[in-house]
Amino acid sequence: MTGVSRVVDVDGIPVSALLQEARRPRAVVLALHGGAAHSGYFDYPGRPHLSLLRTGSALGFTVLALDRPGYGSSAPHGGELAPVERRVDLAYAAVDRLLASRPRGAGVFVLAHSIGCELALRMAADERGSDLLGVEIAGIGRHHHDDAVDILGVRHNESWPRPAAGSVRDLLWNPSHLYEDDVVGGARFASPSPSYEGVVARSWPLVLPELAPLVRVPVHYSLGEHERVWRSGPAALADIASLFTASPRVVVDEQANGGHNLSIGLTAMAYHLKILSFVEECVLARASAAQERPGRAS
């Protein structure tokens, strides 16, 4: 069973998503794709072992893969969605409409990939973010890998030029043996990016240290062993973890044999199982906190 396509209207803007429901969900996992992709990234056709939607629902989690603002049905409105507040409000409203009266279990956990982590952390840093179960960010960082500095021309405060597509492909999809042959390049979930995303990419290294201290829920951070867009390794993982000073719990993980695209590589199931385990821990932590509140009857 594949995810069901859904479209809802939010103040005149259609927002699309893939939804796969569990009968009695432990929680809802809201999945936010990266740049130049759409929600199909989390439910690759014909590869059920790669699908976050299938794995999540099989383990009792409803999974909602949202087409981020400016993607999918909202693509024609991309020019209207540059203001940060507009995108955050649109995402929250879309989730409420897409889930409607559907059960959410313990609540909503946000999993995001690459530049999709910008929306995830802005949602978590918002005053509404304290209601989230937690956040997983992956394929993102604070400092670019040396290979990316050379290919993308990211140096100091220079703008980010548009490099040759083949060079970007090398960063995102090498080593290619980490992916199924038909997956490399991501043609089946590729999508044009909204214009505002160039600004997001250029400003991200400065925005991350501002957003992270505002996140007040548990955080899980993952990088692939073979990540080439962002610096990886123990020091890089610890650096990111240190930014989340208000989070009650921060866990970092380097995915063995993983590249940039963790949710679509050969280790996708291993990665998804780790994150779903973290979601389950967040579910249990919320239940425990509720029982420990003052005034609870003994």
From TrEMBL:
Residues 29-260 form the AB hydrolase-1 domain. Signal peptide: none annotated. One of its GO terms (molecular function) is hydrolase activity. Keywords: Hydrolase. This is Alpha/beta fold hydrolase. It comes from Streptomyces mirabilis.
